[in-house]
Design goal:
heterodimer; A: two-stranded antiparallel ribbon; globular; B: 51% helix
Chain lengths: 389, 51
């Protein structure tokens, strides 16, 4: 198959699986490999993450050694060069132990919530930057320093554009998500950046009204414009594997009541628009999402593709027959199991979950560490999908 | 790049420092389109805050 023909074939596999109307020609297979790719290609984490030419070689190595149909992560997951150009950052790269750590570094301390509610942009500019960058805190920042970060940001954008062209044009990869914008839920922003895990947990218990106000202020800035942009989307874009992508983290610390108050209202708005337009979404919920599955049960088939991280995919299929499933291959097995065990797991997944369609094989977690997967196991699973599904 | 010699400007203050910074940076947006330059700078700032 020629490259463009292959890309269209692969895209259709994803569309058929996610839209749940037609059984795909075979089970599509998505790579959810992230920093593992760097180690597998023989580079240090710090080398590849600081050098876009090396990162391109890493991605090419991955594509040339394993036959996936789409690549979720194209080398831009940890854009460390931009904050480092400004003398800060939240990632710690440890080449000796081959790990990247992300600090739970909040920008809003207790007692500062009202300032953020009053003017989030002012808060980011004055308080957020001060918390993250020493030059801002010291007041020693100059235009030349900001220019360096601005130029790094542009270099990253150029790299992203190059990679996102390379995947379909040179390797026939399905393009992952149509450019329909991004709805950043306020509570997730608070969890990831504003308050951190500790701060959000504390505020939800001590002053839930303040959480309401913060969600509202942040949604005004990011979520609502994203939703308006989505409402203007013409409908499904069959040139991409999915129309939309949502990754959620905050639910991991929310109980049912908190979910209903702070996350579900936003999530429902997005899902309702997607359902109305017949568009598809890959919904990745970190950790376990099982206690929230009931919220998704009434959406029409072919809208939501669930990508569970820590939940049983067979149980998920029974609970939500209206949702396609992406995932199922445990990183634990790819890392510690034998080739035969991995292939057997793939066979069961494809035969049971994929027998009537609605299934995309992928890894259950972002594959990050060297021991998350043995190369021969990854290759065996890729070969099985191509030859037997 | 202008304003680098002007030591009186506190670039960490919003909005006055932000406006001065947006005017001082080298961007592919003409100086007269100040709102666009400021939006581009704030895009960078929010990205820096998130990372």
């Amino acid at each position: 198959m020629q490259t463009e023909e292959l890309r269209k074939y692969r895209t259709k596999l994803f569309r058929d699986a996610s839209m749940m109307k037609t059984k795909p020609d075979r089970v599509p297979h998505m790579s959810f490999f992230v920093t593992w790719k760097i180690l597998d290609a023989g580079y240090k984490l710090s080398e590849a993450m600081h050098d876009y030419d090396i990162m391109e070689k890493v991605v090419r190595y991955h594509l040339e050694h394993y036959d996936f149909d789409a690549l979720f992560e194209w080398g831009g997951r940890n854009a460390v060069r931009i904050p480092e150009a400004f003398g800060g950052g939240t990632y710690i790269i440890n080449d000796e132990n081959e790990v990247v750590s992300y600090l739970d570094k909040a920008i809003c301390d207790r007692g500062e919530e009202d300032e953020l509610i009053a003017n989030p942009m002012k808060f980011f500019y004055e308080k957020g930057m001060t918390k993250k960058y020493p030059c801002w805190a010291e007041g020693s920042v100059t235009p030349a320093m900001v220019q360096k970060a601005y130029d790094e940001n542009n270099a990253f954008i150029q790299f992203a554009m190059k990679m996102l062209r390379m995947l379909p044009e040179e390797y026939g990869m399905a393009k992952m998500t149509a450019p329909n914008g991004f709805c950043y839920c306020g509570i997730d922003f608070m969890f990831n950046t504003i308050l951190g895990i500790k701060g959000l947990s504390y505020l939800m218990r001590r002053d839930p009204g303040k959480v309401d106000a913060m969600v509202e202020a942040l949604d005004e800035l990011y979520f609502n414009p994203g939703l308006e942009a989505l409402k203007k989307a013409p409908g499904p874009n069959m040139d991409y594997a999915f129309d939309y992508d949502i990754t959620l983290l905050a639910h991991t610390i929310l109980n049912q009541k908190q979910f209903e108050r702070w996350l579900w209202p936003d999530l429902k708005k997005v899902l309702d628009v997607l359902a109305e337009k017949g568009m598809t979404v890959r919904l990745f919920m970190e950790g376990s999402s099982k206690r929230f599955w009931e919220y998704f049960k009434d959406y029409p088939a072919g809208v939501i593709t669930m990508h569970p991280e820590a939940d049983d995919v067979f149980e998920l299929r029974k609970a939500l027959p209206n949702c396609a499933i992406l995932g199922g291959m445990p990183v634990q097995l790819l890392g510690k199991g034998t080739r035969e065990q991995c292939v057997e797991r793939a066979r069961i997944l494809c035969n049971e979950l994929g027998k009537d369609g609605g299934f995309i094989l992928s890894q259950d977690k972002m594959v990050s560490f060297r021991n998350d997967a043995q190369p021969e196991n990854v290759k065996a699973v890729c070969d099985y999908v191509l030859e037997h599904t | 790049m202008a304003d680098e010699k002007n030591e009186k400007i506190d670039y960490t203050k919003y909005p006055e420092g932000m406006k001065a910074l947006a005017a001082a940076l080298s961007m592919p947006i003409p100086p007269e389109e100040s709102a666009k330059r400021e939006a581009a700078l704030m895009g960078l700032i929010t990205s820096l805050v998130r990372q």
